Amino acid sequence: MNSQTSTVLQNRNLSRRAVRSGWRTRPAPAGVLALLFRLLIGLAATDTFVLTVNAAAPTISDIAQQLGYRDTTTYPIQFTVGDAETPSGSLLVTGSSSNTTLVPNANLVFGGSGSNRTVTITPAAGQTGTNTITVTVSDADGNSASDTFLLTIKTTSTGSGGGTRTIRPFNSSVDGVGNYYLEYLPAGYNPSTPYKLLVYLHGGGPNMFAIPGEIHEQADVYQYIVVSLDGRLLKFTPVGFTGTAPLNTPFVFDSPVNGPGEQDMRDLIVHAKALHSIDASRVYLAGFSMGAWSTWGMGLRNPGLFAAIAPGAGPTDGYNMRQRDHATALGGDPIDTTDPVVKTRWLMIGARWLIDNTMNTPVHVFHGEADTSVNNLTNLTPAKYAHSRNVIDTPGWTDSYGTATTMQELAAQYPGYYVGEGTYVPGVGHVAQDVFDGAILFQFLNQHTNNPNPLQIALKTYDDVHETAYWGHIDIAAPWTTAYGRFHATRDPASNSFSVTADGQSTITLDLPVMQINTTQLIRFQAGPLNNYAGSIALKLDGAGSGSAVLKRDGVTLQQGVDYSVGGGLLTINSFSVSSSHSFELTVGNAFSIVGSIQGTAVLLTWPSVPGQTFQVDHRPTLDSGTPWLPLVTNWPSAAGAFTTYVHTNALAAPTGFYRVLRLP
Question: Which of 27, 171, 349, 607 is deepest in the core (most CB within 10 A)?
Fold first, then answer.
């Protein structure tokens, strides 16, 4: 059997079904052809018939409900197209609006290339409302497919202050979802001047315009750029919600339902820095209600990202807010669920569980004392959790989940912690305009800059995402299981030493060069328990892993390859118990510390012993690189004790000189 138009239906696209049953076709390119068909029943016979192969329709991805603002062009709304026969780049995309008074068809502008396309929409001037947008993709065979989505154009607010307001769109760097933020440039803005940046998060339900007017007014006084993020549209209806959809809410954490909210915040900061000159050491975060909850969470999960944070009437314990819609956003209720991942999400959004991370993050809370939505009183009967006071200045709250530690308790227990502050307003309920005092807020913010390299750091985490604070990193043994890892570390460049205390089984990595620890000298450090921890940790020292190294713990020389390893720039100390404190001495490569003293006319040199090692002691009268080092002794044996000594007799009779000790191969 043969096909008369083999370019349309090739012979290899035909197959024998069974004896005497004829032939059948496999999928083939579109077209119409005459096909010679022979029946295998008895004598041979021929017949012809018309076979039509229909082309498949193109495809278009679903476009979710979208939000826009009056007199503002939307962000590029992303979608994908495809077709079995027509190359993606040749597909035609068109669109139409159900309400051309709100959005003229000509104001639908398509972009992108290949299978990845976008549509950007500009509403008619001064218009607000809701309409349906239809996007259609057509292929070369005349087939098409369409998708419709609801577009809501909201009104805007003029607000207070004498500066300039601009609504700016941007897209998530993770999933491409579009979003907006309101940018406020202070009166007298000069593009060549570095500005301080305040990021403000609105509460659940309102949008980016729900920002107390005096914040913009004080931004003029203190010369801040203020950006307020529009939370993503909720993909569910909150419990008890009776308003008009779509609803914005600033879930500034990664929600399995609502998307990567924390990355939205990071993208916003990057976007603002790309448009303006921003002082990187003066980026601040504030928010109200659910926005304050996100302020707590974002600030504490990411030590060093903000110079200071100011939550207003925000929840600090997710468990006490579990009856609301947050369970949907986080994938389940923290008490009822048996999923450890869901339980961990709840822990990672509660300031109560991450309060350790405030060591270098100044916090000033604002809260009304008559707030019944997010309680802040400590004298209620029966007792209720006070969301701001219980983590700032009122200790003693204990429930079935544990004890709430306050910032003031931490500062008393661990010198170096920032002492939290609070402004509690009598008679004020859950109202942002009444809770925030703009003058107090900006006076607080203006006192603080972000130190990128503090002498002390602290970090606590329950997951494997938020693992870094300044020059320290932690990998906990069992992330996302409600088990945590925590450490405090202190560096002292002057004595070339540091200390670390830990709680929870983990591996802690410290960056020695950033810590300004000199690896060409003897390094001393301590490692011990935090909060009576009786377990073990492993320790990695970045920058100490080239060549050989000698490591002692509590005066005992450890064995390389057994107790520790060197390689890839890291010195890794295998897991060891920190139920009690240990003292370490580390010598990297051929360099270590030498202590010199004068005895009469002799110079006494002392350095750490290395069993089985021999040394060479050199001298030269000047540090000029052109002056050679002269050996005083070679193959000097290491002493049996902790230190080896060499005496240069009658040294003071010679000109003043310099000494070095080399560890020989």
Answer: 349
